[in-house]
Amino acid sequence: MVRRIVHARVGSHPSAEDLVQETLTRVLAASATIEPGMLEPYAIVTARNVVASMWRDADRRRRNQHRVVDLSTPDLPDSQVVLDEEQSAMATALARLGERERRTLLEHEVSGTDTHTLAARAGSTAGAVAAQLNRTRARLRVEYVLAAEQAELPTDQCRAVLIALSGGDQRRQREVRAAQHLLECELCARLSEPLLERGQQRDDRLRIPVTADPDIVSARRAARELASRLDFAATDLTVIATAVSEVCRNIVRFAGTGEVVVELLEVPRRGIQVVARDGGPGIPDIDRALDDGFSTYGGLGLGLPGVRRLMDEFAIASEPGHGTTVTMTKWERTHDG
Amino acid sequence: MNGGPALVSIMRQGSTLIASVHTALDDSELVRFEHDLIHQIGEHRSRGVIIDVAALDVIDSFAALTLRRIAEMARLRGALTVLVGIQPEVAFTMVRLGMGTGQVPTALDLEEGLALLAAHPGAGTDSTERDARPGSTP
């Protein structure tokens, strides 16, 4: 009976079944206080109320959507079609959030309730609420991109990786091995672009995709340029550029595709860190690859062992079938040496 | 070479080829340079080759290998190769990396390089006369 009432009002709306369940729960919860015989009318009224509140929520959400959309989406041509798509994608994304997260987010973004008020109500601190809001926004961005692209994620890891990237949480990104995953998962690599655009504004960190010979030159040039902001001696700049050149060559030659991330460090000392990552076949025998004179392509066999000599810190991790990551650091020295 | 400004220019002076690298080269450009140069050595019957690498900000293992290979091929074609203009930072890095230019002779700059070729029997710029009279080589 309840189902009939709900359906009469919302038709085959996807949430019809939810509404029926909610109505029944409310009726059951209240059944003790309802006079016998009045149960049926009570259920009808409850159903109506539940449906009405859904429309009201949906309406409020629709009216206020633009505020949330602005958080994550780049400017798009102002056509109605795009707007509609955005709205439905945002509605889908919101619907995928947990009930509590959604309510907090909407209250903060839409009704303008500040974090102190929200914290007082939830019995926690403003900082915790803000952190939670950030996590919710990160998730919302991911869900939004997924809904807009109508993408199905191939593995369980994908969502965790995308959320970590979206939130800009570096510790979490390392935990889920986000960078590695992006090299292996084409879909995530594509989806992550709009999510990463927000974080790209940091100018002490550069990410250079490496797939072909010319990328080797642009990567080493970029590394030299970034390094020149610190007090490196001219020799060290050349050393860094050469080391980047060697690791990029390995990416092009053995993996075909990868990336180099160059980052200036402040702690524990000023320096530059280079992480070269690929999703290639991996190195079966790392000790041998680090031997002087060992080469698989008729080179001098000086690539990796040479790089290790050039840099102050050098670490290599490789998993057959899952690619190789070289992490190396050069610390700043103010005098020549 | 590919529409843009030339990455390398190869000039001829007597029986000497002077190849100047103008900008950083990537691996495939290095390989193309290698082919061009070897081809021209044969075409011009050169006895001496000078490669000016002053514009290379990085000589990594592949670049070093390529330069060595060029010199060895040129030798087999009868020409002596001299590398000139290796920058001090580049030299430092090459040593740290554990590589050198092997048997390839080097000189500080173009002038020194030409002098080195001139001093070498059979590779100097005055060797054009001997081209005309083969068999009279001492």
Structural notes for this entry:
The complex is a heterodimer of chains A (337) and B (138). Chain A is an alpha+beta fold and 337 residues long. Chain A has helices at residues 2-10, 16-30, 39-72, 80-96, 99-109, 115-122, 126-149, 156-167, 170-175, 178-184, 186-197, 213-227, 234-255, 286-289, 303-310, and strands at residues 205-210, 258-265, 271-278, 313-319, 323-331. Chain B is α/β, with parallel strands linked by helices. Chain B has a single domain, classed as STAS domain (Transcription Regulator spoIIAA, 2-Layer Sandwich), CATH 3.30.750. Chain B contains 5 helices and 5 strands. The termini of chain B are far apart. The chains are: A alpha+beta (337), B alpha/beta (138). Chain A binds chain B through residues 213-214, 216-217, 220-221, 224, 234-235, 237-239, 241-242, 245-246, 249, 252, 292, 299-300, 302-303, 305-307, 309-310, and chain B through 24-29, 57-62, 64-65, 87-90, 92-93, 96-99.
Short description:
The complex is a heterodimer of chains A (337) and B (138). With 337 residues, chain A is an alpha+beta fold. Chain A is built from 15 helices and five strands.
Task: Describe this protein with a few key phrases.
A: 337 residues, alpha+beta, Butyryl-CoA Dehydrogenase, subunit A, domain 3, Heat Shock Protein 90, B: alpha/beta, Transcription Regulator spoIIAA, five-stranded mixed beta sheet
Break the fold down into its secondary structure elements and pairings:
The complex is a heterodimer of chains A (337) and B (138).
Chain A: H1 2-10, H2 16-30, H3 39-72, H4 80-96, H5 99-109, H6 115-122, H7 126-149, H8 156-167, H9 170-175, H10 178-184, H11 186-197, E1 205-210, H12 213-227, H13 234-255, E2 258-265, E3 271-278, H14 286-289, H15 303-310, E4 313-319, E5 323-331
Chain B: E1 8-13, E2 16-21, H1 27-44, E3 48-52, H2 61-76, E4 80-84, H3 88-97, E5 106-107, H4 110-119, H5 128-132
Parallel strand pairs in B: 2-3, 3-4, 4-5
Antiparallel strand pairs in B: 1-2
